[in-house]
Specification:
With 458 residues, the chain is of the alpha+beta class. It folds into three domains: 133 residues, no CATH class; 157 residues, Jelly Rolls (Sandwich); 129 residues, Jelly Rolls. The strands form eight sheets. Strands 3, 7, 10, 11, 14 and 16 form a six-stranded mixed beta sheet that branches. Helix 2 packs across helix 5 and helix 4 runs antiparallel to helix 5. It is globular, with a radius of gyration of 23 Å. The two termini are 35 Å apart.
C-alpha cells in the first residue's frame, strides 16, 4: 500500500479533483477523540491496516510488479515509526494506490478504495499519539471485502501449473540507463508438450528497475500491476513451444556500482480438460504517436479515437504513460450518440500502472467509438520530470513519453471450445503467429553460458 519514501508525490504536483478536495476537507474536519480515550493500534488501527493494507504491507511482503512494501503495518513498532508518512499518504490520496476516480467504486475487481470513516480513524490514531493499546483488543475484519493475503505458494495465482524463468541471471550493467533486450525463457522438458489454455498468469519482475515486460502469453508486466486472472470461460491459448519470448525493458540510474542482476520469472495456471472457452481474449494497444509535448507545458493533452466494428465484451483497460503522465480517460460514444466514461484516472502514477478489470465484462456494440484522452505535465512542477526544458515525443525510453490505452476484449459470439478437444485452426494459427512475430521483429538476446556479448550490448 505504501511505497518507498523517495517515491511519494508531494502535494500539488497533479491537479486535485473536486472530490479529493472535499475528501481532504472531511478528513481535517473529522471529530477529534477525547484525550482520555484515544484510538489504539490494536483496537482501531490494526484491523484497518489488515483490511486495507496487509496484502502488501506484511512481514516479508510480496512483490507487486517489482515493488515491495518497505514495512509491515501489522507490527506496532513499524506502523508507529512510519506514522507521519502514513498520514501524508492518506491525506494526499497517494495510498491506497488505485488511481481510478471514486465514481468507479464497485465497477472493477480488486479495487483499493478506503472508506472515509476508516481513513479518518487512522489519521486520528496518528494525531493522538499512536497509542499501542492492548493486543487482546484486536478483532480481525480481514474477511470483509477488500482484504487480501498472498497464498502460501508465494504466487497470487496460487500453485502454478507451469513456471518459467531466465536460463541464468541477466546482468544490467553499471552504464545501462535504458535497455530493452528480448529474451527466451526455456520451458522445462516435458512441462508443456501441447497447447494449453491460460486462465491465470503472473509475472514476477526481479526488481523496481524493470520498467515493463511484454509477452504474447503473459500479458504486460509494469510497476504495481498484479496477475492476469481471466473470468471463467475466458482465456489465452499458449501453443506448445520450448520457449516463452519476453521483451524486457530496464531503466535505472547509470554509474559505478549500480549494476543489478535480474531473474524475472512467470507462472501459469491452465484450464482443465472438459472446461469450455467461450471467449478468446484479444488485446489492442491503441497508441497515439503523432505529437510533441512542448518544454515546460504543465497540461498538454493528446486525444485519439478507435472504432469498434463488431459487438465485443470489454474485459479491462490499462492506461500507460511515463514520468510526465498526469491523467487519462477512456470514453465510449454509442451508436445512438450517448457518451459514457469508462475509466477516469485523474492522478496517473507511473509507479502504479493498474489494469482496471470489470467485475462483469462491459458490452460495447458495433458502431461504438472509443474516445481516448491523455494529459501530461512537462513543467518543473512535476518532480518526476526528467527534463522540463526539453520537448518530448513518443518513444520507447522511460525518459521519452507514451500515450497508450491498452484494452483486453473478446467478440460476444461464444466459441464453445472444449478444453482437450481439437483447437480451431484459426485460434491456433493466431496464437502461434503472435509468438513468431515477437521473435522475428526483435533482436534476440541469447543467455547461453558461452555467450558474453550481452554484457556490452547497447
Amino acid at each position: 500500500m505504501f511505497g518507498n519514501q523517495d517515491n511519494f508525490k508531494s502535494a500539488g504536483i497533479f491537479s486535485i479533483t473536486w472530490y479529493q478536495s472535499a475528501l481532504t476537507a472531511l478528513i481535517f474536519c473529522s471529530p477529534t477523540f477525547a484525550q482520555d480515550n484515544p484510538p489504539s493500534f490494536y483496537a482501531d488501527a490494526l484491523p484497518l491496516f489488515e483490511k486495507n493494507c496487509a496484502a502488501c504491507h506484511q512481514p516479508d511482503g510480496p512483490k507487486v510488479g517489482g515493488i515491495t512494501a518497505p514495512m509491515s503495518l501489522l507490527d506496532y513498532s513499524q506502523a508507529r515509526a512510519w506514522g507521519p508518512m502514513i498520514r501524508n499518504a492518506l491525506t494526499t490520496g497517494y495510498m491506497p494506490p488505485w488511481g481510478a476516480h471514486e465514481r468507479h467504486r464497485g465497477e472493477f475487481k480488486d479495487e483499493r478504495y478506503i472508506d472515509i470513516k476508516e481513513k479518518n480513524l487512522l489519521i486520528a490514531w496518528i494525531d493522538s499519539g499512536m497509542v499501542e493499546g492492548n493486543p487482546e483488543d484486536f478483532k480481525s475484519i480481514a474477511s470483509t471485502e477488500g482484504a487480501a493475503q498472498l497464498p502460501s505458494s508465494g504466487w497470487w495465482i496460487g500453485d502454478p501449473d507451469l513456471l518459467v524463468q531466465f536460463e541464468r541471471p541477466l546482468k544490467v550493467a553499471d552504464d545501462v540507463e535504458d535497455w530493452q533486450p528480448t529474451i527466451q525463457m526455456p520451458i522445462p522438458d516435458g512441462a508443456h508438450t501441447e497447447p494449453k489454455w491460460i486462465s491465470k498468469a503472473e509475472l514476477n519482475p526481479g526488481g523496481p528497475w524493470v520498467h515493463h515486460i511484454v509477452s504474447s502469453h503473459m500479458g504486460v508486466g509494469v510497476p504495481g500491476r498484479g496477475p492476469f486472472t481471466y473470468p471463467e470461460g475466458w482465456g489465452v491459448l499458449m501453443p506448445e513451444d520450448p520457449f516463452i519470448t519476453v521483451n524486457m525493458h530496464y531503466h535505472k540510474t547509470p554509474g559505478e556500482g549500480t549494476s543489478v542482476e535480474d531473474m524475472t520469472s512467470a507462472g501459469f495456471v491452465f484450464y482443465d480438460e472438459g472446461e469450455v472457452i467461450d471467449h478468446v481474449v484479444e488485446t489492442n494497444l491503441l497508441p497515439n504517436r503523432g505529437w510533441t509535448i512542448p518544454a515546460g507545458d504543465p497540461n498538454f493533452k493528446v486525444t485519439n479515437t478507435h472504432s469498434i466494428d463488431e459487438d465485443i465484451f470489454l474485459l479491462s483497460m490499462g492506461p500507460h504513460m511515463h514520468y510526465r503522465g498526469k491523467a487519462m480517460r477512456y470514453e465510449v460514444e454509442y451508436p445512438d450518440g450517448e457518451v459514457e466514461t469508462l475509466l477516469w484516472v485523474p492522478d496517473y502514477d507511473f509507479n502504479w500502472q493498474f489494469l482496471y478489470e470489470y467485475k462483469e465484462p462491459k458490452f460495447l456494440p458495433a458502431g461504438s467509438v472509443l474516445h481516448l484522452s491523455w494529459w501530461f505535465d512537462n513543467s518543473n512542477n512535476n518532480r518526476f520530470n526528467p527534463d522540463p526544458t526539453a520537448d518530448v515525443v513518443y518513444g520507447p525510453a522511460t525518459t521519452d513519453e507514451m500515450a497508450n490505452a491498452r484494452i483486453y476484449f473478446a467478440p460476444t459470439t461464444k466459441r464453445g471450445i472444449v478444453v482437450g478437444d481439437t483447437i480451431p485452426k484459426d485460434v491456433l494459427a493466431t496464437a502461434r503467429k503472435a509468438e513468431q512475430n515477437r521473435r522475428e521483429n526483435t533482436a534476440l538476446l541469447t543467455l547461453a553460458e558461452d555467450d558474453l556479448t550481452w554484457l556490452s550490448e547497447d
